[in-house]
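can u do me a favor
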């Protein structure tokens, strides 16, 4: 196993403005695959990767649901941020 990148090299996500939650998820998935990073390390870093409103959302979800896998968190991120306004923006970007 290669050593995981330092935290400063990981993407962050605010959930505000011109956010792209799918890019955030895909980047973490690639890091996990490339460096064989276990779910526990990814989920332990989420509190540092989320910023602003995403961090407030994370703390609320974490407090309610406790520890979960990266797959579970991905689904929660998609559920929260893949709303109609985001879909409309993506569809009309092309």
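np, heres the sequence
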């Amino acid at each position: 196993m290669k050593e995981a990148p330092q935290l400063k090299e990981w993407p962050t996500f605010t959930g505000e403005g011109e956010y792209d939650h799918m890019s955030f998820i895909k980047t973490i998935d690639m890091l996990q695959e490339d460096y064989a990073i276990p779910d526990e390390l990814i989920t332990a870093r989420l509190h540092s990767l989320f910023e602003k409103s995403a961090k407030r959302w994370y703390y609320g979800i974490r407090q309610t649901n406790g520890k979960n896998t990266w797959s579970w968190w991905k689904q929660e991120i998609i559920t929260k941020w893949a709303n109609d306004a985001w879909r409309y923006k993506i569809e009309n970007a092309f």
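The mean pLDDT is 90. hope that helps!!
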